[in-house]
Amino acid sequence: MKLLDVTIVCFTLLILGVLLLIWFERKYPYRKGISFFREGFWTDLLAYAIVQSFLLKILIFDFIIAPIHHSIPEKFFFSVSNWPIGWQLAFFIFSHDLYIYWFHRWQHASKVLWRTHEVHHSNQQIDWIAGARSHSIEIIINQTIEFLPIIILGADPMVIPIKGLIDGLWGMFIHANIRVSLGKLKYIINGPEFHLWHHANHREVFHANFSTKFSFWDVIFGTLYESPTQPSSWGLYYKFPKNYFAQHWYAFYRWTFEPWEKKQEDS
């Protein structure tokens, strides 16, 4: 199968996955009463998920990864080109998820990095598209570190669209407003029951539930939080801009008081 065919199939599966998640949200909501077109929906869908995602893909692949790739002698790296594509996918999914866990944890512990991450926590109503709200600097860092190794280690080109599909669907799933229980698997595979708590405006989860795909990182490193109850509120404990451009600029210039230090002391 050609790369273009794989890309088309992955995009089709992504759309089908979105429709399925939306149906589950309407049928089995974790938090009842959330409107489909909730506050910030169009900002998340159009500004973040479509426009920002498209523009940053060009920036990351054409202006960051490509120059780095061409400037690095291949002999200094081992190659995965002879591995079966399934092993390649597993390697990059697993290694990148471990990186994301630690970088995510660092963002919550660092005043500087928190400013590139707080926008991701600014939605007070979390659903399938809420996870798309991420500062462009955070995306540039994470996706460069995610896709650069895939290219410089000689992976099959099909790994990129397939991994992109898995990342996209998994990211939407863990943010989806769906009441679902994975049973004992929840300690291995991450889902809404842990990640929706991570987005809660509760002191006890500010430094917990950092995992993206595999919740066992939280289990192993002692940052798992679970509760039989639901959070009472989501989002940030302080006021945050609602405009896309203001949300980005707020990371560099604070025009309102943001008691980050107090949050750290209370945590």
TrEMBL record:
Please name the Pfam families in this protein's record: FA_hydroxylase
State whether keyword Transmembrane helix applies: yes
Ranges in a coiled coil: none
Question: How is the protein disposed in the membrane?
Answer: Multi-pass membrane protein
InterPro entries xrefs? Fatty_acid_hydroxylase, Sterol_desaturase/TMEM195
Domain of life, per the record? Bacteria
The chain positions of domain Fatty acid hydroxylase read: 90-223
- Please give the start and end residues of each transmembrane region: 6-24, 45-65, 85-103
Q: PANTHER family given for it?
A: ALKYLGLYCEROL MONOOXYGENASE, STEROL DESATURASE-RELATED PROTEIN
Name listed for the protein in its UniProt record: Sterol desaturase family protein
